[in-house]
Amino acid sequence: MVRVTVWNEYRHEREDDNVAELYPEGIHAALADALEERGHDVRTATLDEDDEHGLSRDVLDETDVLLWWGHLAHDEVSDEIVDRVVEEVRDGMGFLPLHSAHYSKPFKRLMGTSCSLKWREAGERERLWTVEPGHPIAEGIDEQIVVPEAEMYGERFDIPQPDALVFVSWFEGGEVFRSGCCYRRGSGRIFYFRPGHEEYPIYEQEEIITVIDNAIEWATPTDGVEPNFSNVEAAEPIGEE
Amino acid sequence: MVRVTVWNEYRHEREDDNVAELYPEGIHAALADALEERGHDVRTATLDEDDEHGLSRDVLDETDVLLWWGHLAHDEVSDEIVDRVVEEVRDGMGFLPLHSAHYSKPFKRLMGTSCSLKWREAGERERLWTVEPGHPIAEGIDEQIVVPEAEMYGERFDIPQPDALVFVSWFEGGEVFRSGCCYRRGSGRIFYFRPGHEEYPIYEQEEIITVIDNAIEWATPTDGVEPNFSNVEAAEPIGEE
Amino acid sequence: MVRVTVWNEYRHEREDDNVAELYPEGIHAALADALEERGHDVRTATLDEDDEHGLSRDVLDETDVLLWWGHLAHDEVSDEIVDRVVEEVRDGMGFLPLHSAHYSKPFKRLMGTSCSLKWREAGERERLWTVEPGHPIAEGIDEQIVVPEAEMYGERFDIPQPDALVFVSWFEGGEVFRSGCCYRRGSGRIFYFRPGHEEYPIYEQEEIITVIDNAIEWATPTDGVEPNFSNVEAAEPIGEE
Amino acid sequence: MVRVTVWNEYRHEREDDNVAELYPEGIHAALADALEERGHDVRTATLDEDDEHGLSRDVLDETDVLLWWGHLAHDEVSDEIVDRVVEEVRDGMGFLPLHSAHYSKPFKRLMGTSCSLKWREAGERERLWTVEPGHPIAEGIDEQIVVPEAEMYGERFDIPQPDALVFVSWFEGGEVFRSGCCYRRGSGRIFYFRPGHEEYPIYEQEEIITVIDNAIEWATPTDGVEPNFSNVEAAEPIGEE
């Protein structure tokens, strides 16, 4: 069982009636339920939970893969916790920033870019095309996922070139977007996945959960050697001609 | 001055009145004219020109970058000439397969994949989004190029992951496509560029020519060392402990 | 259980006493034994086994991951079987070319390059450094694997840029080599792994088998959609302004 | 003429007699001289020059490509100037961190990783192998560059997977290193180049200057569109079925 922590800012759901109706217990709870059904060992954490945003060292030590949803309050996440999350990813923890988490502090820190994009809220249709059907994150996914109503995110998405690009979105209003992007940073694996606006029941779509489920499996750390970053002796003779 | 050879199958233009009207001297001639205006040293070659399809060793020796347009008669290109082109690319010649040349023998040979895709001829609008505005092939290009009427090519496009992905297309009918893809194979650089259906005046669009012009500059060979593929002596002592 | 087929040319072992002593039943048998111990469902196939080199359609249909060892007789592998193997890889079968299989027909076909390199047989020390400790193929592997005696392969290795580079070799005589290279081609995953000269007991090294074991897990096909390569109807309206 | 700024920490040269003997005017002056001879328009800047480390907005506005050498005093570079440099790179300025600048603040910020490595100071021989002879940064470079005496840097080098890997180093003492790594971040191009320890006359080696010269050409910004990161109107109709 993969130990998953779903982190959520959890503000929209408490401030906006429409969102509360969709996700009465919060987006984190909806995701946790869906992922527990898929057999994962899931806990949740939220921004206002305690002075560590629910991400104590103990919680992170027991986390294989961390999901991150945030939007209104990226700046309220303390730099100390961001440092901690970034460090954990580099040490191997999987990291799945979802939707508006493109602008979260940990993702921006791990990417080294602005992670900016263009956007529009018009409830338009999105089609996520499976660009790499052979990738494990695309397992069980059809050639496209149709999201009936979505916020648009459009290119230029200011990210480093992904190590693998799994999904590309089409939007009714005329834009495209690299919606499923894999990275390795340090020993950790990162998958940015675009869908998930708070005003539409996107995390109730079976295929969306399947992608997240696949991404959790893909991002689960494997037991690699801890890198040796030190001054070392030579194993081979130096100075022979 | 970059020495460019524009290769064209040159069948549609001679067999179909609509195409002949658009490209009376052939697509190769239209491209050659446009690229000469941009300051390149351009020659053309066509499938039925001679028993080497206009691609004698002398012609290829004097070619820095080869453009390739083909559609109806990929199979009529002799394997000997394909071997020759592939060899030249590996030795450093730039190669720009255009549009339906995704299915040309040299491109398929250099990619190692089927290069298949889905398609539709409905004269629909295409928007090529500039995914990498900092790439030299995007120099002078706006955030999108709108092609008013295009044949659709849709993902899954069965290619190896590009070394760089510069353009992604949006189509009116609902599909997306990786439309500008960079590769290095051997010492040669390859840029696949999607636009260019024979029934629309796409090669008369200024931005399309700009992209091709940029790609020619990018693909022009630089003077790298010829790899040494042989049995070699050791430069360092072997057998010391 | 992953269904593994180990293909071996099986000539050195029958023609050269030194090799026969190391691998009396052939390299394929040694690999099969080691991989069965790791829990895989392994069968073997060899060049001279039957007129299909042991790679009938039935065998390939029941193969998740194909290992390939060849050296002296690459040219004797029939093009029909090569076509079949390449097709299977594109359809999702994992493919692990080992050592001198860099020059095998299926690998060259899937890469689109010459796959040439420089070499030396001097029984020198090789150190495979783990460049990506977080990659699943490096699971359980230390920061380096030392092969006491190896044939040298040196750069320039004429391959496409790997999708991921997991190991880089150091050689006593002064060369380096990209020794563990991941690719996706079609829906299949490919891992080229350098170690394995026939004159040294390299496939008896535990770490070497661990890498191959990991690569088998990594290359096992996942159940992705079969791409739709056809003329399609538009899902969205065309012709609106 | 490319406008190059060579930034140097300039401490070793003022604090250590051996270094002062090699680079009496500083590493920046030696590089500036060599690059001026190659036809570039070069200025220099140093850490202690003024309260902006010589990197005022005006200087950066007039810089196409910034070289960076630092070692002892990475932490003394003010975060404000680091922000400024990172911003300029994202806006297109080329950036060439040299040698120990792997640990400079701007490089670490742009990579998002620790950029750690292992090392040894033993004056050992280094061989930089040209892994991509067809890359423009390898123009005019032989299959290897031999540095007679070098500080060793060894893998695991904790960087994101490079967009292109041009050189890999071999070290006498048994290690390897990815010594020439290309990245795009925002609209800017970055080339990390390893050689350059302050105690050896490495920047007097002609081939080393050739690589830097090539990298400057490669990293010079091209005139791409400034990305539009805003809330946008739809260009296509929304809400049709």
TrEMBL record, chains A, B, C, D:
<feature type="domain" description="ThuA-like">
    <location>
        <begin position="3"/>
        <end position="219"/>
    </location>
</feature>
<dbReference type="InterPro" id="IPR029010">
    <property type="entry name" value="ThuA-like"/>
</dbReference>
<dbReference type="Pfam" id="PF06283">
    <property type="entry name" value="ThuA"/>
</dbReference>
<dbReference type="InterPro" id="IPR009381">
    <property type="entry name" value="Trehalose_catabolism_ThuA_prok"/>
</dbReference>
<dbReference type="InterPro" id="IPR029062">
    <property type="entry name" value="Class_I_gatase-like"/>
</dbReference>
<protein>
    <submittedName>
        <fullName>Trehalose utilization protein ThuA</fullName>
    </submittedName>
</protein>
